[in-house]
Design goal:
By secondary structure, this protein is of the alpha/beta class. It has a single domain, classed as Vaccinia Virus protein VP39 (Rossmann fold). It is built from 8 helices and 8 strands; from the N terminus they run ααβαβαββαβαααβββ. Strands 1, 2, 3, 4, 5, 6, 7 and 8 form an 8-stranded mixed β-sheet that branches. Helix 4 links the parallel strand 2 and strand 3. The protein is globular. It starts with a helix and ends in an 8-residue tail after the last strand. Bound molecules: S-adenosylmethionine.
């Protein structure tokens, strides 16, 4: 499997789900994110855009909310929803998680729900989150981790990855990847019991942390 096959499988699955109402989340990241007026927020794997629209309403006209996704179907649905609400402080970006098209130190808050498990290069995703966050900026991410190692045959199966389980990594690997990107203050806000997904057992967690550094000078 190469990156193109992986992206095609994701585009196909989520293109088909864009007009459905089924729940695609695995935790309450947005509930814990507590965006503030004037902030710049980014949702990685924004799906139909509902969390981005909530963020846009919360940050108001002085702030900005970005959604990022690779699925044309999801991006189309999100843009139509934003237009219906007449929101002008919102923008949806087509990009893989590993290449966030925003400048260094430009974002106050990164959220993501049930998306990073799909990424081929998770270290690159977390490094990008660190890069775009301002010093003192924060993230709240809900995602799935694997209770057991994903069998090799599925780890390279694009459809199984698009179904939110075969790309999952073990909890210790997850936490060390986030810490390895330089993010600190890691806090697991909620965590589920193990449950069956695809051919393995997974669990969901919502993880928060910050990019250390002085956010203000005097
Ligand atoms: C399970 S859905 C979650 C959508 C939304 N966050 C929610 O909670 O409803 C995962 C989303 O991530 C997107 N996605 C998956 N892999 C991606 C990647 N490598 N780069 C960018 N977006 C990706 C999919 O297109 C899909 O919209």
């Amino acid at each position: 499997m190469n990156d193109t096959e992986r992206t095609q499988a994701i585009d196909q699955r989520y293109g088909e789900l864009a007009e459905s109402a089924c729940c695609l989340s695995c935790g309450g990241a947005i509930k814990y994110a507590l965006a503030r007026p004037g902030e710049v927020c980014l949702d990685l794997g924004s799906g139909r855009g509902q969390d981005v629209l909530r963020l846009a309403e919360t940050v108001g006209p002085e702030g900005r909310a970005y959604g990022l996704d690779v699925s044309d179907g999801m991006l189309d649905k999100s843009r139509r929803n934003a237009a219906k609400l007449g929101l002008t402080n919102v923008e949806f970006l087509k990009s893989p998680l590993e290449r966030i098209p925003l400048p260094d130190a430009s974002v106050d808050l990164v959220v993501s729900n049930c998306t990073i498990n799909h990424a081929a290069d998770k270290a690159a995703v977390w490094s990008e989150i660190h890069r775009v966050l301002k010093a003192g900026g924060r993230f709240v991410v809900s995602d799935i981790y694997a209770i057991e190692d994903v069998p090799e045959a599925y780890r390279t199966d694009p459809e199984a990855i698009a179904e939110c389980w075969a790309g999952a990594v073990r909890r210790d690997t997850y936490m060390s990847t986030v810490a390895g990107a330089g993010l600190t203050g890691l806090q697991v806000i909620e965590e589920s019991a193990p449950y069956d997904k695809g051919r393995i057992q997974v669990a969901s967690m919502t993880l928060a942390g910050i990019k250390a550094g002085n956010c203000c000078c005097c």
